[in-house]
Design brief:
With 230 residues, this protein is α/β, with parallel strands linked by helices. It folds into two domains: 5-16 and 98-227, HAD superfamily/HAD-like (Rossmann fold, 3-Layer(aba) Sandwich); 17-96, Orthogonal Bundle (DNA polymerase, domain 1), CATH 1.10.150.240. The chain is built from eleven helices and eight strands. It has helices at residues 17-29, 35-43, 46-54, 63-77, 85-92, 104-111, 125-135, 145-148, 155-164, 179-187, 221-227, and strands at residues 5-8, 15-16, 99-100, 116-121, 143-144, 172-176, 191-195, 216-218. α1 packs across α2 and α6 (104-111) packs parallel to α11 (221-227). The radius of gyration is 17 Å and the shape is globular. The two termini are 12 Å apart.
Length: 230
């Protein structure tokens, strides 16, 4: 493909959000809380919390704010009581401390030899910087929700990616493990690559192995690098 840049979804595609949030929850909440159930409960509030912003019901706020607001309900769902403010702040920072999938850093390193790489995420700029520094993610720049004040799948997020990269949409390849994200990118003229991540939800919600609409469907970022000649 004649592309000049790759823009990546991050949560679930590049990093394992479930294991990371559960690890921090176990540390901060103790053994009486099912840490993985808590991670799932918190993640279940991810999209609904953004929908109020997408629909115009409230001004844009960074994802850290939405995570903090949805935290009490997630805790209550797993039978945990309210936590002190300092513990709540540490839990929100769990999303800044996620580990990459084993293939992510090797695959991104190979891809960066030929392409400009950027996260195209609903996570804020500081969150993406923290993840990159912790995990060694070799981004060239940060794109996404906080940059344009919109949450995916708002068309402006994808339009802005091409505009800020000074490339036509067809020269930007969006890489994600979520078919709806890729469909929204294709609707704006961007190219797409699907990455199968069967363990994103601990194997309980297994996604399709391929996205029939995507230009490429792969099982790892290293496979993507090979498919793109890196």
């Amino acid at each position: 493909m004649d592309v000049g840049a790759l823009a990546f979804d991050v949560f679930g595609t590049v990093v394992d959000w479930r294991a990371g949030v559960a690890r921090e929850a176990a540390r901060l909440l103790g053994p009486d809380v099912d840490a993985h159930a808590f991670a799932d409960a918190w993640r279940a509030r991810y999209r609904p919390s953004m929908e109020e912003v997408r629909s115009g019901g409230r001004p844009f706020v960074p994802l850290d704010v939405l995570h903090r607001e949805s935290l009490p309900e997630a805790l209550a769902e797993v039978g945990a009581g309210p936590v002190p403010d300092d513990v709540a702040a540490e839990l929100v920072l769990a999303w800044h401390r996620l580990d990459p999938w084993p293939d992510a850093v090797p695959g991104l390193t190979r891809l960066r030899r030929r392409f400009v790489l950027a996260p195209l995420s609903n996570g804020g700029v500081r969150l993406q910087v923290d993840l990159a520094r912790r995990a060694g993610l070799p981004w060239d720049l940060v794109l996404g929700a906080e940059v344009v004040g919109r949450y995916k799948p708002d068309p402006e997020v994808y339009d802005a990616a091409a505009r800020l990269l000074a490339l036509p949409p067809s020269a930007v390849l969006v890489v994600a493990a979520h078919v709806d994200d890729l469909a929204a990118a294709r609707a704006r003229g961007l190219r797409t690559a699907y990455v199968h991540r069967p363990d994103e939800f601990g194997g309980t919600r297994v996604p399709p192995e391929r996205d029939p609409g995507a230009d490429l469907s792969v099982s790892s970022l290293e496979e993507l690098a090979g498919a793109l000649g890196c």
